Structures are given as C-alpha cells and as structure tokens.
Amino acid sequence: MTSSPSPAAELFEHRRMLNLQVLLGHLRDQRPEGARTVEDPEEAAEIGADDADRTAGPAIEIYDAERLARRLRHSDGFVGDPAEASNDEDASQARQVRLWTRMLADERGPWRKLVIADDALIARLASLDMICPQFSEVTAWIVRAAGLSAATGTPLRLDPAVVVGPPGTGKTFYARKLAEALGVPSEVIAMNLMTDRGSAFSGLTPVWKASGPGKVAKLLIEGSHASPLIVIDEIEKASPINPRETPENVLHSLLERENAAHFVDEFVDLPIRADHIFWFATANSLDPLPESIVDRLIVFTVAIRDAEMLAIQKSIFHEANLRVGGSFVEPGAELFRSTRGHNPRALSRLWDIAMGFACEAGRRHLVADDVRGAEQVLLGGREGARRPIGFMQPAPRGQEARK
Q1: What pTM value is reported for the model?
Q2: Which of 27, 170, 195, 206 has the fewest CB atoms nearer than 10 Å to its CB?
Q3: Does the structure show a pLDDT above 80 at 242?
Q4: Looking at residue 247, what DSSP letter applies?
C-alpha cells in the first residue's frame, strides 16, 4: 500500500505549482506580439530552466523568432556577397539578410536578460552617493525602484529621466557609473551630432547605401540584456538639416513604454521589445525641447553644493589614479581646496596633467606646483589663443579695407 504524502510535502508541492503558475503568467505577459505561449506549468518550468542556462537569469524574448524565420524564408532581397552586388540597394539588402541570419543562428535565441534587484545591486546603487553626491536625489529615486524590484521579485523599471544642470557638473560621468552599478551595457548618443530624423536611434532602411541598424536595435540584438542604459547627451541640442524631420519624432515612441514594446528599427524591419531600456538624458536647459518630450521624462535639477565638492574632487582624483594603476597617493586637504574653483569636467583633465608633472619630477605624490602647472596647461593656452602670435599685428578692419 502506497503511503500518502505528508501534509508538509503536499504544502511544498502546492506552493511549487503556484510559483510555476506565477512564472507562466509573467512569461506570457512578457512575450512580444505573435510569440508562442506555453500553457503547461511543468513545460514552462523546463523552458524556463533551459532559457536560464542560456541567459543566466530572468529574461524576455525581445523579438518573435518564428516571425523572423518566416521573414528570412520569404525574403526577396539579394543574399550573396555584398561585394558582388549589382547596386547599393542589393548590397544593403544583403547586409539585412545576413543580420537576420545571425539573429536566427544566435544560440541565445531572442532571449535577453532582465535586471531584478537584490541586496548587492541596491548596495552598489546606494554607493553612488559617495562618488556623485550632487546626484543624491537621482540615486534615491533609483534605489527606491530597486527596492521595489527586490521586494516583489519583478524586473527593475525606471521611467525615462533627464538631469538638468550647467556644463561640467558630471552628468555623463554619473551615467557611466550608474551603468556599472546596474551591471548592464551602456551607450552614449550625442544629440548635438544628430543632423537627421534620428537614424542613430531607429536605423536606416536598406534602400540607402549607408543603411544599418540603429543603436537601440544593436544594443538589444548584440548585447546580453533587455535593459541596457542609453544616455542621450545634451538632449536639447539636436540640429537636424530638415526642421520637419527631427530626432524627437522617434523619441516620442521610444520614451513611451507601450509604443516601445513594439519598436521597429527601419533596418531590422521586425518588432523589437525596447520597453525595458533604461533611458537617461542630460541637458543644460529644457527650454528648446518640445513639451511632448519633457512630459515623457522625470526631470531632476542638479547643482554642486560646496559641502559636496570635496567628495566629488576625491572621486575624480581616484578615477584618474585608477587610469595609471593607482600609482599616486591621495593629496592632502590643502591641495583639494586649491582646486575647488574647477568644475568636474576640468578636474578630470587637471589630475592627469598634474600627475605628468609629478612623474617628470620623479615623485608619486602631488604638490601645489603640479597643480599650478596643470592649470597653466589647461587655462593659459586659452588666453594665448586670443592674442596674435608673432611680430605682425592685425590691422583694423577699416584700415585693411583701405589698403
């Protein structure tokens, strides 16, 4: 006679099945439109285990692999060697087909990792206050979101945010440190270099000679995470050639989570889930931005307070010291006080130059003369550039015209 399971065993099995049902529901919610679904909890557990081996953590499908396979089978593009293509469009289509082929052959399939916070991640995020205290409000917001993720076991979600502050306050530096703390890939897109409608974000269709996927699709397809950090540097400074085709048009979709879940890169030409991306923008002012973009962003204003400056100075020194293998001892308080007038951008250059002066003198510690020499290199040339060089003095404009 077979003995019946104990109450404890029944409770354990019941809780296991409930957890599997929750997992199944979560996976169903995370799948993109058209992706396959699994109804059996046991099968879902097996699939989850298999995918966990490939992605080493919770993951989602960022595109529909079956739809990709159908697209590849029915492609009427040129599939040979681009060097043998008869024209630019054929070569571009060949590159597109090759990208599809690589995507289909990727052993990870369409699965990419999600970020689910734990105590270690929260500690790394909280430590940002020690190196970037001027961003404490931003860090506190992110730590709260991480706490919610850890408590609920759900993916970390951060709404698109913009940090507004004067040049040189360390906005891009903070973004890089944030990516390191999150443990995700990152990409900086300089908006002041954007002269078209935003192909850096959305790619270019294969009808163009220089076509290719945008940085959003490349990060998701080539990277390991569904949640990379994309930094839009100086988001207010786009200068498109055609004012009617601005990068803000594509940002309207990418910064809106519901639309980003079905983002279509023009080159990939396949819906991609971009709704888990962490968007972090910097700006000197929000005045030039359309209100419809500002409405999609959480806005933080940053200014460096005197009480925070010493921590920032030490952080930037240690960053510079790491670049040379930690070869120098930390300066004393007096030397840090002498550099208080420089913003973080200038300091990041000043320490490197000052270390060069110290090394030239055979020292592994910095003195005031090293700092003064670095300041002369950084600032002295600016004044010299405003003065004419040599013995010939430029003639006034009126006199030059008479000659």
Answers
A1: 0.69
A2: 195
A3: no
A4: T
User: What would the pLDDT profile of 50-107 be if each residue is shown by its tens digit?
Assistant: 444 444 568 999 999 999 998 888 664 444 444 444 556 678 788 889 999 999 999 9
Closest CA to 225 of 100, 102, 58, 104: 58
Can you read off the two tokens belonging to residue 251? 């940002």
Closest CA to 228 of 184, 172, 281: 184
**Per-residue pLDDT tens digits for 329-358:** 999 888 988 888 887 878 888 999 999 999
Judge residue 227's burial from the number of C-beta atoms within 10 Å of its C-beta, 0-12 exposed, 13-18 middle, 19 or more buried.
buried
Indicate the DSSP class of residue 378. I
CA distances from 124 to 118, 131, 143, 208 (A): 10, 11, 9, 44
User: What are the start-end ranges of the H helices in 183-285?
Assistant: 199-202, 215-222, 248-254, 257-260
Say which amino acid occupies 380.
G
In angstroms, the CA 18 to CA 180 distance is 35
Question: Which among 42, 37, 11 has a CA at the least distance from the CA of 25?
Answer: 37
Task: Give the pair of three-digit tokens for residue 12.
Answer: 């354990």
Residues facing residue 282 across a β-bridge = 163
Strand residues in 157-293 grouped as ranges (E): 161-164, 186-190, 229-233, 263-264, 271-272, 278-283
